[in-house]
Design brief:
The chain has three helices and seven strands. It is of the alpha+beta class. It has one domain: Alpha-Beta Complex (Peptide Deformylase), CATH 3.90.45. Strands 1-2-3-6-7 form a five-stranded antiparallel beta sheet, with helices on both faces. Strands 4-5 form a two-stranded antiparallel ribbon. It binds zinc ion.
Amino acid sequence: MIRPILAHPDPRLREPSLPVQTFDDALRKLVDDMFDTMHHAEGIGLAAVQIGVHLRVAVMEVEDNPQRVMINPSFEPLGETMDMVEGCLSVPGVQDRTKTRIDHLRVQALDLDGKPYTFEAHGLEAACVQHECDHMDGKLYIDCLSHVRRQRVLQRYNRIRREEGGRQSD
Ligand SMILES: [Zn+2]
């Protein structure tokens, strides 16, 4: 089931998510809905908080890497910082370049049965892991930008939202 995606500046995006403790059918349904919602929006990653569920769950599907479900994830940096053009389904219509993402990580997470697993993420997938983990702490990628870039991207974003709001009320 496709669920509505919260958009900045919705305050629910700024609330931290709690660790998952129960691995049941409701969690499976949540993850199914997250994949449906991410595919519909043509995204490569989605955190549960983006559909208003404050649990530390994210789904990802980046380039040729496998589909991933990350529950209570954490990571260890193994690489260097890189430049990465990022966007976010909760800040739709704009993108900007972050300079703080690490290009190689070892990720630990639980699967849908609560079993721990690890994988190494590189490049865009590594950025995506950091982006989704930030969501779980109430952070957005625009927080990683310099002050000037953040102002500029938010100006563009607010203009797009005003234009869309105008169209909807026509
Ligand atoms: Zn995002």
